[in-house]
From TrEMBL:
Organism, scientific name: Cellulomonas dongxiuzhuiae
InterPro entries from the UniProt entry: AAA+_ATPase, ABC_transporter-like_ATP-bd, ABC_transporter-like_CS, ABC_transpr_LolD-like, MacB-like_ATP-bd, P-loop_NTPase
Protein known as: ABC transporter ATP-binding protein
Gene3D superfamilies, per the entry: P-loop containing nucleotide triphosphate hydrolases (3.40.50.300)
Domain named ABC transporter: residues: 10-227
Keywords for this protein: ATP-binding, Nucleotide-binding, Transport
Nucleotide-binding listed as a keyword: yes
One annotated GO molecular function: ATP binding
Pfam families from the UniProt entry: ABC_tran
Keyword Nucleotide-binding among UniProt keywords: yes
Amino acid sequence: MTATTTRTGLALSDVTLAFGDGDSQVVALDHVDLTVTPGEIVAIVGPSGAGKSSLLAVAGGLTRPTSGSVVVGGTDLTSLSGAALARFRRDNVGFVFQSGNLVPALTAIDQLRLVEKITGRRAVKPPVQLLAAVGMADHAKRRPGKLSGGERQRVGIARALVASPSVLLVDEPTAALDRRRSHEIVELLARQTHDFGVATVMVTHDHDVLEHCDRVLEMVDGRLAAV
Ligand SMILES: Nc1ncnc2c1ncn2[C@@H]1O[C@H](COP(=O)(O)OP(=O)(O)OP(=O)(O)O)[C@@H](O)[C@H]1O
């Protein structure tokens, strides 16, 4: 069996996330069900304050839901204690943020090697190959200050794949990019999702890039619905 068929992606079942209580209670996620299979990229759109970032935070084990279950690669995150959850997240969840979130002092290749060092695990593909897969082989020795926004985003995507995560969570990856680069980045995310068999959830305001995704869902008032 390949790694793809043994993994189970992401499953959120009846997830609710509430902040505060009484009159001031805010329900950020309201009985959300979401299953993303390995090799599938799902886009989440929706108005500001609808709960999109909350969904990513809960799916990645950064925030515990008030109720419901979150299963990543077959493990129920709600069953893990703090330290175990942090370890699990490090080894199984990849995050890609708006601007790449790279370490300024490190070259592109060293951003990837740092993850190998921190996790103590060798990447499934060597860092050089991961950089080549995102079209950054020629820029391996450059630091973020010498890269464009799109290039930084590519390195961020390669870095998120180092630990061979079950789940890739992507927040507004095209916010800092022009139209052409936005298409390139989301096409790349979709290709890597399919090639690596990772279950990807991407939050975006950019309706232009939705064509590259396997499924589009809309979040309104903490609820998810098909578009
Ligand atoms: N730590 C918190 N404490 C209290 N309320 C919060 C907290 N985090 C988020 N919220 C509230 O939960 C709701 C959902 O917020 P969330 O950031 O998930 O929305 P979003 O769809 O990502 O918005 P945007 O598109 O503006 O980033 C909002 O009403 C927000 O004010």
